[in-house]
Amino acid sequence: MSDDPMRVAVLGGGSFGTALASIAADNGGEVCQWLRDPELAAQINREHRNGRYLPDYAINPTVKASSNMQDVLERAELVLVAIPSNAFRDVVRQARPWLHADQILVSTTKGIQEDGFKLMSRILEEETGFIHIGVISGPNLATEIAQKQLTATVVASDDPLTRTRVQKALGCDYFRVYASNDRYGVELGGALKNIYAIAAGIAAALGMGENTRSMLMTRALAEMGRFAVDQGANPMTFLGLAGVGDLIVTCSSPLSRNYRVGHALGQGKSLDEAVEALGQVAEGVNTVRLVRDKAREDNVYMPLAEGLYQVLFEGVPAREMARMLMLGEQSSDVEFLLSREDVQQAHRRVETRNE
Ligand SMILES: NC(=O)C1=CN([C@@H]2O[C@H](COP(=O)(O)OP(=O)(O)OC[C@H]3O[C@@H](n4cnc5c(N)ncnc54)[C@H](OP(=O)(O)O)[C@@H]3O)[C@@H](O)[C@H]2O)C=CC1
Ligand SMILES: O=C(CO)COP(=O)(O)O
What we know:
By secondary structure, the chain is an alpha/beta fold. It is built from 16 helices and 10 strands. It has 2 domains: 7-181, NAD(P)-binding Rossmann-like Domain (Rossmann fold, 3-Layer(aba) Sandwich); 188-330, N-(1-d-carboxylethyl)-l-norvaline Dehydrogenase, domain 2, CATH 1.10.1040.10. The chain has helices at 15-26, 38-47, 69-73, 85-95, 120-128, 142-146, 160-170, 183-205, 210-230, 241-252, 257-266, 271-278, 284-298, 303-313, 318-326, 340-354; strands at residues 7-11, 30-34, 64-66, 78-81, 104-107, 112-113, 118-119, 133-137, 151-156, 175-180. Helix 8 packs antiparallel against helix 9 (210-230) and helix 13 (284-298) crosses helix 14 (303-313). 1,3-dihydroxyacetonephosphate is lined by residues 110, 139-141, 194, 197, 246, 249-250, 256-258. It catalyses: sn-glycerol 3-phosphate + NADP(+) = dihydroxyacetone phosphate + NADPH + H(+); sn-glycerol 3-phosphate + NAD(+) = dihydroxyacetone phosphate + NADH + H(+). Sn-glycerol 3-phosphate binds at residues 110, 138, 193, 246, 256-258. It is an enzyme of class 1 (oxidoreductase).
């Protein structure tokens, strides 16, 4: 591999796209960032600052922003797609004329497409048919990355070249990139944790404490594992940065947009008001709906996702939902050791004996 600077394109001018563009440039890459708003692109080039999404942080001055996709993509070796899931396919289609099979295409987006319940790297595959496809996911609050706080992420792909090139392009003294070959599991972890971050934000706004947050995160992990198994994914991946790592940060930090939506709901705002006030993407709002429907369809036990769905979309008060969840059927701690069915059977046996 040559030591020439890697040519990196970033599609998306939001907070994460901007943070990633700056990392790649700090790392010596030749970075072009595409955003649809020419005025914001001009501001990035002029002031080295993204006034809309990361107003308080300096961007590496060598990042070139443009609203011309051809200019950004034509020479790129690595393309990072940081576009919310509801616009992801459209933007990849716009980009398609300037994408070529030698490029490495990586999704950074933690969401699900409603039609077919597809994750974003699948869309990259469907739209291009290329083989160098991967995802990055992990505990990666864009604002903290912009502050150069020490951070780690995961690049996941079954293609070793994709993993190595991304590790080389982004790994630096404040951003460490771990490799995984479980693309689906890493991507699924990133999408699912947003659901529980909304719930954690609600709990915090209702004055619930650290025991509650810890219970919520741990039971969320159990629920995520159950869903992963149903989808044919390996739940072991959730023990890594893209599972438990991202769950911890997103359920704990007011810098998370999903957490903030939850917090606003807990303070009594309507869902529309909470999303409107945020002004940025909170993927979990859509993800909870899709995952809850899928769980029902496949008969997967996901009481937290079901409960949050009812709070968000059916007007059930959050405190009442929390009470119902606490009084729900008896269950097991680690289901890989003791199944829920075993716990319930034992209860039934005791009840029959007492009758
Ligand atoms: N922010 C974070 O901390 C992290 C985010 N992520 C993931 O990254 C993804 C992108 O997030 P992020 O950068 O934070 O998002 P933001 O909400 O900050 O920004 C979204 C960006 O996408 C652009 N966009 C939206 N719709 C379209 C469209 N139809 N055509 C072209 N551009 C469009 C917006 O442009 P415009 O301004 O013109 O509307 C904006 O540049 C999300 O799925 C998120 O889950 C992952 C890890 C961390
Ligand atoms: O995924 C993230 C942190 O890893 C960002 O979370 P939000 O989208 O909730 O801000």
